[in-house]
Specification:
By secondary structure, this protein is α+β, with helices and mostly antiparallel strands. Helix content is 22%, strand content 28%. Strands 1, 2, 3, 4, 5, 6 and 7 form a seven-stranded mixed sheet that branches.
């Protein structure tokens, strides 16, 4: 802990913890694997992804960066804030501490002991999609081609990317690898040559593998960003030009 003058103290977290959130006005420096120790406003970030499942029930980590959001925004919409009890999946950040302890969002819902007895008295419990009693893990339902039909080749390409990439671990890759193990799919023969890591401008992650006498680039990422890099598609009837009509059909299927 070092003195930072007008901004209060600067706390550097060097391991996973959330015990000491400092005081309002302090600046906390966090990085991958840290637990956020207090509610704070994001001052600076670098590729910051935070898991907020403890507060929102959502599986995917969310990107955080400085900015302004509406005063009425819910926790899930507050992209400029980090909250006590959530965890840093990747990147680094500097946070200005605003609330600590029981005054935080997490503190307002923490060890409500009367709820324990209420759970014990239940016969039927109904929850919505963000219910915290779910397993909190994704499962792969379908690897589809451009016609929306199951495709072993698409599954294999996704598996190559998911199993060989060395960037941020994420629930989507874990689901693909788990499905490959469930199917008993043999280890891919592809040999990794290179990797282009994910970033928030390109919004794609690519691996290059050697196959036979050539090389294959397998990319995954945000649908729009992958689509904009394509000029052709491969379907059951071979390779076709990705024209405006086919592009619109793919976008409609994705949105639907």
């Amino acid at each position: 802990m070092a003195d930072n003058g007008a901004a209060g103290n600067v706390l550097h977290l060097t391991r996973t913890r959330a015990a000491d959130g400092g005081d309002p006005g302090d600046v906390v420096v966090v990085s991958a694997d840290n637990l956020i120790p207090a509610d704070g406003v994001v001052l600076e970030t670098r590729d910051l992804l935070v898991s907020q499942a403890v507060l929102t029930g959502e599986v995917f980590p969310v990107e955080k960066r400085p900015g302004v959001v509406a005063a009425t925004a819910e926790i899930a919409e507050r992209s400029n804030c980090d909250f006590m009890g959530t965890s840093v999946r990747s990147g680094t950040a500097r946070l200005l501490v605003v609330r600590t302890g029981e005054a935080t969002a997490y503190g307002s819902i923490a060890r409500r002991l009367n709820a324990i007895e209420n759970f014990g008295r239940m016969d039927v419990l109904c929850t919505d999609k963000t219910g915290t009693l779910t397993v909190g893990a994704m499962a792969l339902e379908l690897a589809a081609d451009v016609d929306g039909k199951a495709s072993d080749s698409i599954f294999r390409a996704g598996w190559i990317n998911a199993s060989l990439q060395q960037g941020l671990a994420n629930p989507l890759d874990e689901a693909i690898v788990a499905e490959a193990l469930r199917r008993g799919t043999p280890i891919a023969a592809a040999r990794k040559l290179d990797e282009i890591p994910y970033d928030f401008v390109r919004r794609r992650l690519s691996v290059v593998v050697a196959e036979g006498d050539g090389a294959l680039l397998v990319s995954k990422g945000a649908f729009a960003n992958v689509l904009e890099a394509c000029s052709q598609v491969r379907g059951p009837n071979g390779v076709a030009v990705l024209d405006a009509a086919l592009r619109a059909a793919l976008e409609a299927r994705f949105a639907g």
